[in-house]
């Protein structure tokens, strides 16, 4: 956690290093306006843009977004197809702007389930925004796609089994740090703040391991209405929290 000053605010606040958002409520937002659910998904892209800008402005170093869960594959095929097309289009439309802002873009999740075309566009976008040697990105933008917390823990457990197959006695010394390095988030600090929009108060199989000590914030705002002001308000709320990690403070 770093002491930082909002660029456009007088207030000095504790800024979270890593903010993670469960972007929920697109369907309801569209239905409230008499539209199909997918109308909400396309408007959700604007909230992503706003949050990236707000994260850079407030000095947040990692912004991660839950865009599509393993369970979301169970939605009607037409909605899944639209969500995947939107992801493809958003990458094509936004990648140069992200590069210009010094943002590193990455996608984490079960890539095997994505179409080869989408995988290829993700791969190219990741290469395009990879920082030059010795340079730190202004912001790491991580999109969780085809992701679930249980899936992540299972794939890490499988890697662990392979790693120690020839010497199972080594398993006794495996600690949380070693296990964490096998998760898809290896090298990414655990989220300090996890925000969920739309009023639902659940984790929905998101970062089960990594959010062990995250501050949780549930807001009623539907994702397409979540903009810069809402992002700043969330950071401000975080700065008032007292993190104890089981100790006495
Ligand atoms: C979040 O909005 C986007 C995804 C989960 C892909 P929803 O599509 O879940 O919208 P609601 O929750 O039904 O309103
Ligand atoms: C969680 O939202 C997943 C994402 C935001 C990507 P859902 O809308 O899928 O979650 P539930 O079904 O309400 O728990
Ligand atoms: Mg939802």
Please explain how this structure is put together:
With 249 residues, the chain is an alpha/beta fold. It has one domain (4-238): Decaprenyl diphosphate synthase-like (Undecaprenyl pyrophosphate synthetase, 3-Layer(aba) Sandwich), CATH 3.40.1180.10. 39% of the residues lie in helices and 18% in strands. The protein has 7 helices and 8 strands, in the order E-E-E-H-H-E-H-E-H-E-H-H-E-E-H. The protein has helices at 26-32, 37-58, 77-101, 116-128, 149-163, 176-180, 228-238, and strands at residues 2-5, 12-15, 18-22, 62-69, 103-108, 139-147, 193-196, 215-218. The strands form 2 sheets. Strands 5-6-4-3-7-8 form a 6-stranded parallel β-sheet, sandwiched between helices. A two-stranded antiparallel ribbon has the order 1-2. A hairpin with a 6-residue loop joins strand 1 (2-5) and strand 2 (12-15). Helix 1 crosses helix 2 and helix 2 crosses helix 7 (228-238). The longest helix has 25 residues, at 77-101. The radius of gyration is 19 Å and the shape is globular. The site of one 3-methylbut-3-enyl trihydrogen diphosphate (IPE) has 12 residues, from strand 4.
